[in-house]
Each structure stands twice: as C-alpha cells, then as structure tokens.
Amino acid sequence: MQRLGTVQQKLPCVFMTEVQDVPSGKHEAQPFRVMATEHLNPSALDSDIHSALATEKLDGTCCYVSTYKGQPYLWARLDRKPNKQAFKRFRRFQSSQKSCTAFTWNPQEDLKAVPDHWVAALRVQNLDGHPLPDEHGHIPGWVPVEKTNKQYCWHSSVVDYETGLALLLRPLRQDEDEDMLEITCVPLSQLHEQTLELIGTNINGNPYGMGSKKHPVHCLVPHGTLPIRDAPPVSHKQLLSWFLESDHAKVEGIVWHCNDGALFKLHRHHLNLTWPNGQTSLNTRPVVIHVDWPRDKLEDSCKSIFSAFSNLNGQTFRCVEDITFEI
Fold it and tell me: Which one, of 79, 77, 75, 54, lies nearest residue 193 by Cα?
C-alpha cells in the first residue's frame, strides 16, 4: 500500500459544498451550515478518488510526530487565529460574500501570539515569509508536547520521552481476525513525520466511551490505519445510503487517501446526519493489550497509563469501551 498522507491542513470535502443559512449542526455558534452537494470535488477527481483508500475519520484531536530537542517528539495541533478586530472583519466579509478566498490579511497585525516553539503546518501559504490564514481564518500549526505543560496533559500521557515510546491503538498485525485491534507501545522514531489522532476519556466529549474520570484511558491512532469495511463508491447517493443503512457506518466520517498523497473527507454533518449517534463502529471491534512496560520503570511510573496497560498485558477486551484499570 502507498505511504498514507499526513493531515497537515483542514481536509477538503470530497464533494463540492454549499453554505445554507441555517444553524450548523456541528458548531453551536455557527449561524450557517456547510453541506455537500452531489457534485464531486474536481480536485478529488484529479487525484483519482475512485481508487483511493477509504479510512475511518476518528473523533479526536490531531497530533504530529517530528523532531524537537534533537529527538522524536509528539506535537499537538494549535491553530494560530486572528485577533478580535481581524476576526470581526473576517466574519463580516464571510457573511457578505459566503466565501473568504479574496479576504486580505495583514499577517503582522491580524494574528494572536503563539508559543515560542510553535510552527506552521506543512504547505501553509506565506506572504513575505509570514504564514497566512486559510479559507477558514486559521493558520494550522503545531506545538511540542512538553511534560510540564498541563494544557496538554492527555497528550503527554501517551508518550514517554525517556524510553522514546508512544501508546498506539492499531489493527493487530498478521491476525486471522481482521477486526481485532491492539494497544501497544511503538517507538516514536517509527512514527516520524506521521500524523495521528488522540482519542480517549477527555477528548471531544469521549464519543467512544473510553475510561472514566477516575481512570482515564487515552491512546494514539495513526491516520489511515482503520480502513472502512464495505466502503461504498464515491457517490453522494450511495454514500448517504451507506451512512443510513450499513452496520459499518457508525463512524464520524470517511477520509480518502489518494495515491498521490491527497486527502479528502466526508463528515456526517455534510449530509445533515448527527454525530455522535450512539454505538460506534470502533466499539464493535475486540482489542488485545500488548504493553510490556520495563520492570524497572513500573515503580517509577506506577500512576502512568503505560504502567496501567502493562498490568493488563495479554488481556483481550470486547472493545475499547470495556477497557478498565479499576480493580
């Protein structure tokens, strides 16, 4: 299989979209709704969308593995946003035009400050060396996850920089049961320049029902590693039918990975469908724990999620929702 694309930008919809003057079903404060039309995005056709790999769009927060302080580090998504005055100008323009591609930014005056080590995402447009906001008014970017930064405590819980390991949820390799997942430790060096989704108890309202307030459960899922089962053709009618009828369609959406590295998405909200909506496809798949934390680390990190998973090493659960650290 081709090297999967990385999520550096806000992904375009696989269909052309239109703005409707009704409140968004996804963002409470948004007075309009972005809906998919029946016309395929020309860029998707240029990237041969019909031969692309359809994968599950997970409901979490995007992360990135890249070098920091001379070693592989986990980076959290942090978009640089306009200040209050610039945002008001942008919103007025957006409301009047229903588009923002012609909006003019002053990158030196219109944007909020960001942490010192923040970097813009790959392929962000620049003006005289200054990153420019995208059509949504944000500059996608990343900030390194430091253990001392409480804002990213759930990010830092799934990496251990001393051992250079990350806690991953992924399909079990070389297994007869193609539904089986595993939670395991993987060297961050093997994930270099890849993007992943952080999911779990304290992320986006926990649609997968993982862990509890007392015993939170979080893990990273590399993008593109959960192929859609019985994926329908890329047709508005057939995709809508699939979302409404298939047992495998209890997902937030689909991300297509094209052979040229391009990525396209379809969210349930693009079709005026709700999310979350009860049971999820992720929770129909059994999961086995393969975390053998070094014995000399157990005493030093008795409260870490690595240690907690190590105590469950070899155990199989009905799904990620059933994983518990409680005795």
Answer: 75
